[in-house]
Amino acid sequence: NNSKGELDMSMTKINWYPGHMKKTKDLIKENMQLIDVVLEVVDARIPLSSKNPDIAVFAKNKKRIIVLNKSDLVEKKELTYWKNYFVENNFADHVVAMSAETGFNLKGLYSIIDKVSAEKLEKMKSKGLRKVNTRLMVVGIPNVGKSRLINRIVGKNTAGVGNKPGFTKGKQWVRIKDGLELLDMPGILWPKFESIEVGQNLAITGAIKDEILPIEEVAGALIGKMIRYGKWDVLKERYKLLDEDKSEILGEILEKVALRGKMLNKGETLNVQQAAYTVLRDYRNCRLGKFGLDR
C-alpha cells in the first residue's frame, strides 16, 4: 500500500499513486460498515482495467452493483458479454449498462436500486423494524463518470462535476429520496497494476491525467491495439494513411498521421505530439468507432 506507485508504459515509468488516493482507500474501508450497497462505476470500454480489485475485498457481505458507464461508446454485444462475465464470476449481484452523460438506461439503474432497497426493507420488517434507510456507496477510479451518475440519480447538480481525473475531493452524503441515501467517494486507483496492458488502457481512456503521461507512447499503444483488433481500415480512412503504412513501427505511423494531417511545428518539423493527442481524442469521442479495449 505504498503511496508512491509507478505506471510502466514499457519505456517510461510514471509516478501515479499520490498520497490522497491512499487516504481515499482508507476512507472507503472505514465507511464500508455504514453502507448496505456498493455501487461500483466502471468504464464500459475497459470494464476489467477500470475495476478496482480492492473494492471486491472491501465489499464482502454487501450487495454489489456494477454500472457499465459510457456504454454508448461500445457495441451491444460487448456489453452483453461483460454483464454475464461479472455476474457469473461473482464480481457483482447486478450489472447495468448506462450512460451518465446522456441519461441512457437510468431507469434500469433505478429499478435495480429499488429492488435492493425493497429486499433490505423486507429483511428489517421481519426483525420488527418499520423504518430503515438503505445506504449506497458510489466508488470507482477517476474519470469514470461517478459524479455525473450521482447527478443523474438525484436529478440535480448535487455532486460537483469535473472533466479531469480526481475532481471529487472528499466524501459527500447525498439524499436520493426518503429511505435512500448515497455516499459519493473520491476516485481511487490501486497501488499496483496487474499488467502493462491495464496501465495502457487506463491511460488511453483518460483515467490518468494526460499531462503526466508519455502521450506519444499512449497513442502508439492505441494504434497497436486497433491494428490487432482488425480496425486498420478505420485508421486508414480517418488519417489518410496508406496500406504500406501498416507495416511501419507504431511511432512512425504516428508520424504519418502528423504528416497527412499537416500537423507541423514552427520549424516545419512534424508535430507528433499533436498527432498523438488527436488520435486519443478521436477514440475518446467515438470518432474511431464503438469498441472497447479489454479482450
- The averaged pLDDT comes out at 85
For the record, give the distance between the C-alpha atoms at the N and C termini, rounded to a whole number: 28 Å
Shape: elongated
Helix content: 25-40%
Radius of gyration: 21 Å
Biggest sheet strand line-up: 5-4-3-6-8-7
Which structural class fits the helix and strand makeup?
A: alpha/beta
Number of helices: 10
Q: How much of the polypeptide forms β-strand, as a percent range?
A: 5-15%
- The count of β-strands is 8
Secondary-structure element pattern, one letter each: EEHEHEHEHEHEEHHHHH
Low-confidence stretches: 1-5, 159-168
Largest sheet: 6 strands, mixed
Assembly state (oligomeric): single chain
Quick structural overview:
The protein is built from ten helices and eight strands. It is an alpha/beta fold.
Write the layout of secondary structure elements.
Elements: E1 6-8, E2 13-15, H1 19-31, E3 37-43, H2 53-58, E4 63-69, H3 76-88, E5 94-97, H4 106-125, E6 134-139, H5 146-154, E7 172-177, E8 180-184, H6 196-205, H7 215-228, H8 232-239, H9 250-260, H10 272-284
Helix pairs in contact: 6-7, 7-9, 7-10, 9-10
Structure, explained:
The protein has 295 residues and is α/β, with parallel strands linked by helices. 40% of the residues lie in helices and 14% in strands. The protein has ten helices and eight strands. The protein has helices spanning 19-31, 53-58, 76-88, 106-125, 146-154, 196-205, 215-228, 232-239, 250-260, 272-284, and strands spanning 6-8, 13-15, 37-43, 63-69, 94-97, 134-139, 172-177, 180-184. The strands form two sheets. A six-stranded mixed sheet has the order 5-4-3-6-8-7, sandwiched between helices. Strands 1-2 form a two-stranded antiparallel sheet. Helix 3 links the parallel strand 4 (63-69) and strand 5 (94-97). 40% of the residues are buried.
